[in-house]
């Protein structure tokens, strides 16, 4: 905790971090107007401070909406906490994490997501696991606790927009699922796909030119790292819809968009899969996307981050503090 600094004046405030959709919309607009690539683009972005009030509003505590409530008697819950995984930082308040969500299938407003998930049907939820695998299978999210042993881990979580949180996830190592289906030797990458239901998720129709469904991926050695988790719960309960119910991936050493929500398909593939964010803006959201304070996003610094709910500004750590586990994956000469 000693390295927490409160709001240094020199730090780029979060209000200058343009949410991705605003940037992309402007870029499309400017391209149509013939301005793409000109200095006007940068000027326009620096003037966008819309997210300031949003960020401030997110930190005020509000009552827990019905859509955030989940059954507490669900199978596998609460799971025992694994003491090996705890950054030792104060947990983010449950209501703060649960009312400040990036889930573009529903909304580009982090505060509105939780209000738009009521029509989203999360049961039954068959997950297809296949591609280059000896033993492909389909398993319902509700049956995962019968096949895999759930545990709880407290992880740091760092969004590319320079905010972070500390939350207890429930789930199991992704490596356990991978072992179960025996990938073939030709499998070099794992690809994840989110549901595709514009009728249940209003953001999908509004962003009609996005390459839905949301996809993400990892190299196989990244996917096998013990930190990578299949997550079914948060704060000791099944995932509320806004956090990616009923099952998502958590990759804590990478920017948040790699931690794909509401997964319906997992495939083992030979070549690097296209991801939604890399397809939209390849220089801003490249496939690897490890948290790195020294590599600025093209439009803002990644040196510091705002911890949601305390509002503290803290230095961002390489690999989001998980270098002991993962640096070896990237230092092969
Ligand atoms: N399917 C899907 N997964 C997603 C996203 C999304 O829009 N759709 N947003 C990502 C981003 S940018 C972040 S920061 C995290 C947010 O997770 P949380 O709402 O549980 O904090 O989810 C990631 N996974
Ligand atoms: Mo994010």
Q: Describe it for me?
A:
- By secondary structure, this protein is an alpha+beta fold.
- 20% of the residues lie in helices and 20% in strands.
- The protein is built from ten helices and twelve strands.
- It has helices spanning 20-33, 39-46, 51-58, 94-97, 144-147, 174-181, 202-206, 220-224, 276-280, 323-326, and strands spanning 126-131, 137-140, 151-158, 163-173, 189-194, 215-219, 229-234, 237-238, 248-250, 263-269, 304-307, 313-315.
- The strands form two sheets. Strands 3, 4, 7, 8, 9, 11 and 12 form a seven-stranded mixed beta sheet that branches.
- A hairpin with a 5-residue loop joins strand 11 and strand 12 (313-315).
- The radius of gyration is 19 Å and the shape is globular.
- It starts with 19 loop residues before the first helix and ends in a 7-residue tail after the last helix.
- Residues 1-13 and 31-67 have low confidence and may be disordered.
- The chain binds the ligand Nc1nc2c(c(=O)[nH]1)N[C@H]1C(S)=C(S)[C@@H](COP(=O)(O)O)O[C@H]1N2 and molybdenum atom (MO).
- The site of the ligand Nc1nc2c(c(=O)[nH]1)N[C@H]1C(S)=C(S)[C@@H](COP(=O)(O)O)O[C@H]1N2 has 16 residues, from loops.
Task: Provide a short characterization of the protein structure.
With 333 residues, this protein is of the alpha+beta class.
Measured by DSSP, the beta-strand proportion falls in 15-25%
What series of H and E elements makes up the topology? Answer: HHHHEEHEEHEHEHEEEEHEEH
Q: State the helical fraction.
A: 10-25%
Give a quick account of the main beta sheet: strands, pairing sense, barrel closure. 7 strands, mixed
Low-pLDDT segments? 1-13, 31-67
Tally of individual helices: 10
Which structural class best describes the helix and strand composition? Answer: alpha+beta
Ligands and ions found: ligand MTE, molybdenum atom
The counted number of beta strands is: 12
């Amino acid at each position: 905790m000693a390295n927490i600094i409160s709001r240094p004046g020199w730090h780029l405030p979060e209000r200058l971090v343009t949410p991705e959709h605003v940037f992309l919309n402007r870029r499309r607009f400017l391209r149509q107007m013939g301005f793409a690539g000109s200095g006007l683009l940068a000027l326009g972005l620096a003037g966008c401070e819309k997210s300031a009030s949003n960020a401030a509003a997110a930190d005020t505590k509000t009552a827990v909406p019905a859509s955030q409530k989940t059954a507490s008697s669900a199978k596998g819950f609460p799971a025992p906490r694994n003491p090996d995984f705890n950054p030792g930082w104060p947990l983010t308040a449950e209501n703060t994490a649960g009312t400040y969500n990036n889930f573009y299938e529903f909304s580009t407003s982090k505060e509105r997501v939780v209000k738009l998930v009521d029509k989203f049907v999360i049961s039954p939820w068959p997950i297809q696991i296949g591609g280059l695998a000896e033993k492909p299978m389909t398993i319902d999210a509700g049956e995962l606790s019968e096949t895999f042993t759930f545990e709880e881990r407290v992880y740091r979580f760092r969004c590319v927009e320079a905010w972070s949180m500390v939350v207890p996830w429930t789930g199991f190592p992704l490596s356990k699922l991978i072992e179960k289906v025996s990938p073939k030797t030709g499998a070099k990458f794992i690809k994840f796909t989110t549901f595709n239901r514009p009728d249940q998720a209003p953001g999908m129709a509004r962003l009609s030119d996005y390459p839905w469904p949301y996809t993400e991926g990892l190299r196989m050695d990244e996917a096998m790292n013990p930190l990578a988790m299949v997550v079914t719960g948060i704060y000791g309960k099944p995932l509320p819809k806004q956090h990616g119910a009923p099952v998502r991936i958590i990759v804590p050493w990478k920017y948040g968009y790699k931690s794909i929500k509401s997964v319906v398909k997992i495939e083992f593939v030979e070549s690097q899969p296209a991801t939604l964010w890399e397809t939209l803006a390849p220089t801003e959201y490249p496939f690897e996307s490890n948290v790195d304070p020294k590599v600025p996003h093209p439009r803002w610094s990644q040196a510091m981050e705002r911890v949601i709910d305390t509002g503290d500004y803290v230095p961002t750590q390489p690999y989001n503090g998980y270098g002991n586990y993962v640096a070896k994956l990237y230092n092969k000469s």
